[in-house]
Design a protein that fits this description.
By secondary structure, the chain is of the alpha/beta class. The protein is 39% helix and 20% strand. It contains eleven helices and eleven strands. Helix 1 runs parallel beside helix 3 and helix 6 runs parallel beside helix 7. The longest helix has 15 residues.
């Protein structure tokens, strides 16, 4: 069973639900102010206020009865060190927004609770035992990236049927992407498509990535969901428009920024809700 929600709602829900248990359990006696460790990759996270609001709904106000230790990495390579620093404090719970951050936190501790907001494939990566019974010290909400990415490719062929060679933009630093690529490649084979996988780790990689896809004469673009895709929605859309590549993006925000179409997590917090398709007219 999975919860499909948009980024802001995910962090709000994380603050109002998933964090509550670890805090309540570890904040005894009441004289001790609980400490939340936050592991982020600047500037690829926009849900800070949503997290604060979710905690506020539970009666936790930063600086008054809860402390948030913010750890912002400039690149993925810094995450293990910053996660270790949170463990050394020690914090009562670690907020790790997605799989990229969970992996660093998991290697740093097996006892401090780790809560993720929108993990792409927590079971496939071994971060939880199952969606129903996660076990261990890691829990949160899953967006089931492997299924969504493969379905997104199918929806794209229905939207742009003339495109038979598709560029796949993915991020090698996102732990869930290798498994997502396997699902995409399997779907592409069934659909009779030629796929051209192109990596991009940072904004600076976009220019070369799109140039490579143009050289490969792709007729469309599928973007695999990652924190980078959310943070750089506007430039990503501009590159697609510049090179006249019809793109299938993972988030509604990508369409709002100028992308053609998206298929991904919905804007609802209900359990088992279907993904939503957004199209720019």
């Amino acid at each position: 069973m999975a919860i499909h929600i948009r980024r802001r709602e995910a962090i709000a829900a994380l603050g109002s639900a998933a964090v509550a248990g670890p805090l309540a359990a570890r904040a005894q006696p009441q004289s001790k102010i609980p400490v939340i460790g936050f592991l982020g990759l600047a500037p690829e996270f926009s849900g800070v206020e949503a997290l604060r609001l979710g905690l506020r709904d539970l009666g936790y106000i930063e600086g008054r009865n809860v402390i948030i230790a913010w750890q912002w990495a400039e690149n993925v390579e810094q995450l293990p060190r910053l996660a270790a620093e949170l463990v050394a404090i020690p914090v009562d719970v670690i907020v790790a927004p997605s799989s990229t951050f969970v992996e660093a936190a998991r290697k740093a501790t097996s006892t401090i609770p780790i809560v993720f907001a929108v993990h792409a494939d927590p079971v496939g990566l071994g971060h939880v035992a199952s969606l129903a019974q996660p076990g261990g010290n890691i829990t949160g909400m899953s967006m089931l990236l492997t299924e969504l990415a493969a379905k997104g490719l199918e929806v794209m062929t229905e939207t742009v049927p003339q495109a038979r060679r598709i560029g796949i933009l993915w991020n090698p630093t996102t732990p869930s992407h290798p498994r997502a690529l396997q699902a995409i490649e399997a779907a592409g084979e069934k659909l009779g498509l030629e796929l051209r996988t192109t990596p991009a780790q940072t904004l600076e990689d976009f220019d070369a990535a799109f140039s490579m896809m143009v050289q490969e004469a792709v007729g469309g673009l599928l973007v695999v969901a990652s924190p980078l895709v959310v943070a750089q929605a506007a430039p990503l859309a501009r590159f697609a428009l510049k090179h006249q590549l019809p793109g299938m993006f993972p988030f509604k925000e990508n369409v709002e920024a100028g992308g053609l179409i998206s298929y991904g997590a919905t804007a609802t917090t209900s359990i088992g809700a279907p993904p939503v398709t957004s199209i720019r007219y």
